[in-house]
Design a protein that fits this description.
Organism: Actinacidiphila glaucinigra
Mean pLDDT: 82
CATH class of the largest domain: Alpha Beta
Distance between the termini: 62 Å
CATH topology of the largest domain: Beta-Lactamase
CATH superfamily of the largest domain: GAF domain
Protein name: GAF domain-containing protein
Pfam family, one: GAF
Oligomer: single chain
InterPro entries: GAF, GAF-like_dom_sf
CATH architecture of the largest domain: 2-Layer Sandwich
Number of helices: 17
């Protein structure tokens, strides 16, 4: 079967001119961000990843990943228990040591594209710090857009990302080749191996070298298992399965922004909740001490306290999540749970307004009319709008106003007009929108 370049996972088609290709993908990236439609010359794997990045709210102007990295102590503990630590000597022997005089970095990541080790040319490592390509950083697509380690993990296969094929503009000077590492017993992705540097990292031989090193690493894992040095892998979704700090193992994560059906991820798996269960789990995540049936019902229904109905609902939810996640008397979550709304609040509190807006794809549980949910939704929306207004950053204000449903935000239309240069071509458009909103 012949594989066309459009469907290829390699960056350079045969006989390519890297300089010409760099210009082509840069133009395609600009066109995609302007129109939302990926141009035809872009590879399918890149086009699809750009679309996922855009839908996920990744900021193409961000300086690096939007997720905060792990602290030194947390990273040290996490690396110690991760199976990729066992194959680090193989990776160093085959990739790091032979390339000490080459201008490249070797990154070893986990199954979520979090970078556990980044080694290589010191000068290049210092430059990589400016885009957040450092140990402990999360480079999953949801955090950093299209990139080789994140997209390789998302697709479960080796690939290359060349220059402007990266979704985030500050990463365009870089190229990378990456391949996932799979558990020899279960076949599940347990890590990723990445080579990062200049244009030469997108050449065919770079991906071949990464794939060969991955094969050696997987063989080493199999040998260590047979010798009993490494324990057998836990089945995915079972207690004890390894996950990133703060998302599994010790706690849970609830996604509620721009979703009517929340998604809960815990050490016991991922489940999409019904609208009513979404409201309940969100309230329990915000109130770790829990609620009785009457108190919970009062927060969900404005004029009634349906104790019997609430108990039946909680019984169904407990069967869905399991007794290890949901407790009773009072109803409460038995794992610490963070929400994506919490992450936006934390970024606002730190003054990271650009990252906060990038992490805010839309309103919290927008279809809910439960009183406590409406209050929480309006509180977060108000906090974000106030931060944007007070900062007065024209680009952030335009980002907000360009989102669906925000065109008639009178307060931020005024703030954007104050922040824009007098000669900006957006000025007349904003004034027209403001006049229409007033009418």
């Amino acid at each position: 079967m012949t594989v066309t370049y459009a469907a290829s996972y390699a960056a350079w088609p045969p006989g390519t001119d890297p300089d010409l290709l760099r210009r082509d993908v840069a133009r395609a990236h600009e066109e995609f961000l302007s129109t939302g439609r990926p141009p035809r010359p872009v590879r399918d794997v890149v086009r699809d990843s750009w679309q996922r990045s855009l839908r996920g709210g990744v900021d193409p102007e961000a300086d690096g990943p939007r997720s905060p990295g792990l602290g030194a102590a947390e990273l040290r503990d996490y690396r110690r228990q991760h199976p990729m630590a066992a194959v680090l000597p193989v990776v160093r022997s085959l990739l790091v040591e032979p390339a000490q005089d080459s201008d490249q970095l070797v990154a070893v990541g986990d199954e979520h594209a979090r970078l556990l080790w980044v080694e290589g040319t010191p000068g290049l490592a210092a430059r990589a710090e400016r885009i957040g390509f450092v140990e402990g950083a999360e480079w999953a697509e949801a955090a950093a857009g299209t990139n080789a380690p994140g997209t390789a993990v998302a697709l479960g296969r080796p690939l290359q990302i060349y220059a402007g094929e990266h979704f985030i503009r500050p990463v365009h000077p870089w190229s990378c080749s990456a391949a996932p590492v799979r558990d020899p017993d279960t076949g599940a992705v347990i890590g990723v191996l990445d080579l990062t540097g200049g244009d030469h990292i997108a050449a065919p031989h770079a991906l071949a070298l990464v794939r060969a090193t991955v094969a050696a690493a997987e063989a080493e894992l199999r040998l260590l298992r047979l010798r009993g040095v490494l324990p057998a892998a836990p089945a995915p979704g079972t207690p004890g399965a390894l996950g990133p700090p703060g998302a599994s193992g010790a706690g849970a994560r609830l996604e509620v922004l721009a979703r009517d059906r929340a998604r809960l991820t815990s050490p016991y798996g991922t489940v999409e909740l019904s609208p009513r269960h979404s409201e309940i789990v969100f309230l329990l995540a915000r109130h770790p001490r829990g609620f009785g049936a009457d108190a919970l019902a009062a927060r969900l229904h404005e004029h009634e306290s349906a104790r019997v109905t609430m108990r039946a609902e909680m019984s169904r939810l407990r069967r869905l999540l399991g007794p290890q996640v949901l407790g009773s008397r009072p109803y409460r979550l038995l794992l610490p749970a963070a929400t994506d709304a919490d992450e936006v609040r934390a970024l606002l509190a730190r003054g990271a307004h650009r990252r906060a807006l990038a992490r805010y794809p839309g309103a919290m549980l927008p279809g809910s009319d439960a009183p406590a949910i409406v209050d929480a939704r309006e509180e977060l929306d108000w906090a974000l709008r106030r931060a944007l207004r007070d900062r007065g950053d024209a680009r952030l204000l335009l980002d907000w106003l360009d989102r669906p449903g925000n065109h008639d935000d009178v307060e931020l239309l005024r703030a954007a007009l104050r922040a824009l240069p007098r000669e900006s071509p957006r000025g007349p458009v904003l004034r027209a929108l403001l006049d229409r909103a007033r009418r």
